[in-house]
Structure formats: structure tokens, C-alpha cells
Write a structure and sequence with these properties.
The protein is α/β, with parallel strands linked by helices. The protein has 8 helices and 10 strands. Helix 5 packs across helix 6 and helix 6 packs parallel to helix 7. About 40% of the residues are buried. The structure holds adenosine-5'-triphosphate (ATP) and magnesium ion.
Length: about 250
């Protein structure tokens, strides 16, 4: 499968249209009990919208995001991202799918020994490096770092950055391959409240500038306030959807 090569320049991207229908995922836990982590969930995300999935611990937020992100397989139901039917992809196609979306987690997962710049371009295809396009990937990484407010620290080891800045770098890395969809699981849970506010503001700004569709799982009500839409989950189901009220 050929993949688009990242090019220098911050062209506007098109946010993905996401459609989830009757999505179900069950885990068998110790003692042979079945936990229906995601239970017949339906959810449509408009292009370039920012949606928060909230709900108590164990509600199924992470499981839902992992399914949409191609990190886990559903038992049944359908996920379509733009024209791609994610639930029908064979396992060997999932790594390629994951490279086309942006993933951000609670921990930044940067490689501490690498510079900030090399972390951001870590997802560049090996082909583009072999073809001597290292300059182009460095240029794109630099522009993304400037866009997330990290100009000037490109050459530092990533473990020299404070946690909020590492999360900024993780967001820049997630955007490297121009994803139409950015998925963030508790992106501020490891940060204090001031830093959390900065990160959610950055995520909304990234949507404004790049047009990316954003799906965030969070237990922080302050974050949900900044989002276009709040979907509350409980026991694997959608219990409340602010879009349904409008
Ligand atoms: N890999 C797994 N194996 C077994 N059970 C799992 C697994 N992942 C999730 N579960 C179970 O599925 C349910 C939903 O978990 P999930 O992590 O999706 O919830 P969450 O809403 O993200 O919770 P939190 O707010 O704590 O992050 C829980 O009962 C959890 O124990
Ligand atoms: Mg979770």
C-alpha cells in the first residue's frame, strides 16, 4: 500500500467524517466474567468537530477510542472514517491505518534520548528518510513545533522539556502525517490544572488551524467545556449526548 509522503508546509487538512454504528467490544475478565466495555455505541463525528467523551472510570471511553484508532478489534458493529471501513480492515492493514490518524495519550511516550525534533518526525516513513528527504521531514517537524508553541527547543533532548511541553511535542508528532482524525485519551490527566488548560486550548487551536476532527476521552469537566460536543458514557453505552439537545 502506498502512503502519502509528508511534505513541508502546513497546508490545511480536511477533517475526517467518522461514523460509528452498533459498536460492541466485550472482554472476558478473571473468573470468566464478561464485561461489555462498549455496548452497541453509535456516534457520528462531523469533520473538524471537537468531541469530548466523558464518564466515570470503566465507562468504556478508552475502549471506544482504541477501537476507532485501530488499536483494538471490535466484536461487532461498524466504524467508517471517511471512506475507510476500519472494522473491515485485515489486521495487516491496521498499522497503516494508525499512521494515517493522530494518537495522543495521557503519557507523551516521547523517546527521551531523542531530540524534540527527531521525536516529532519519528513517524515519517522509512522510505522518505532513505530517499534523502530528511531535510523535508525536519522542515515539517520544525513548522509543527512552531505551530504548537515550541519554536526554539527543537534540538533539546525531549526529557529536558516540562511535562506540558512534552505533551505539546506529542501533539505535533501526532499531526506529522496530516491525519484527518486526532484521538486523545486523557491528554491532560498527568498535568496540573494550568497546564491542562493550555493543552486543551492547543487542541482546539490545532482543529482551527488544521481542520482536523478531534475525539478526546476525559474525566475533566473543564476540558469538556472547551469542546463542541460532549458525549457521556456509562457502562459502555452513550448515556447523554449534547449534540442530541440542539
Ligand atoms: N484489556 C482489557 N481486558 C479486560 N478488561 C478490560 C480491558 N480494557 C478495558 N477493560 C474493561 O472494560 C471496561 C471499560 O474500560 P475502559 O478502560 O474503556 O474505561 P474508561 O472509561 O476508559 O475508564 P477510565 O476513566 O478509568 O480510563 C472496564 O470494566 C475495564 O475493566
Ligand atoms: Mg480510560
Amino acid at each position: 500500500m502506498t502512503e502519502p509522503e509528508p511534505e513541508a508546509g502546513l497546508a490545511i487538512q480536511t477533517g475526517a467524517l467518522v461514523s460509528v454504528a452498533e459498536l460492541t467490544k466485550t472482554f472476558i475478565v478473571s473468573g470468566g466474567h464478561r464485561v461489555v466495555a462498549v455496548d452497541a455505541v453509535g456516534l457520528d463525528l462531523a469533520p473538524a468537530s471537537v468531541t469530548a467523551v466523558t464518564g466515570p472510570a470503566g465507562a468504556g471511553k478508552t475502549t471506544l477510542l482504541r477501537l476507532v484508532g485501530g488499536l483494538d478489534r471490535a466484536d461487532s458493529g461498524v466504524i467508517v472514517v471517511d471512506t475507510e471501513k476500519v472494522t473491515a480492515l485485515p489486521p495487516r492493514a491496521l498499522p497503516g491505518y494508525r499512521r494515517r490518524i493522530g494518537l495522543v495519550f495521557e503519557r507523551d511516550l516521547l523517546v527521551p534520548e531523542l531530540t524534540v525534533l527527531d521525536n516529532v518526525r519519528a513517524l515519517a516513513s522509512p522510505r522518505s528518510r532513505l530517499r534523502g528527504r530528511g531535510t523535508a521531514t525536519a522542515e515539517r517537524a520544525r513548522e509543527l513545533l512552531a505551530a504548537v508553541g515550541l519554536a526554539g527547543v527543537e534540538g533539546l533532548r525531549s526529557d529536558r522539556l516540562p511535562p506540558a511541553d512534552r505533551q505539546r511535542a506529542a501533539i505535533a508528532r501526532a499531526l506529522f502525517n496530516r491525519p484527518g482524525l486526532l484521538i486523545a485519551d486523557e491528554p491532560t490527566a498527568a498535568l496540573g490544572s494550568a497546564a491542562s488548560g493550555e493543552i486543551i486550548e492547543l487542541i482546539v487551536r490545532v482543529r482551527d488551524e488544521f481542520g482536523v476532527t478531534v475525539l478526546i476521552a476525559t474525566q475533566d469537566p473543564e476540558i469538556a467545556i472547551h469542546c463542541d460536543r460532549v458525549v457521556r458514557m456509562h457502562d459502555g453505552r452513550v448515556a447523554d449526548d449534547s449534540a442530541a439537545l440542539t
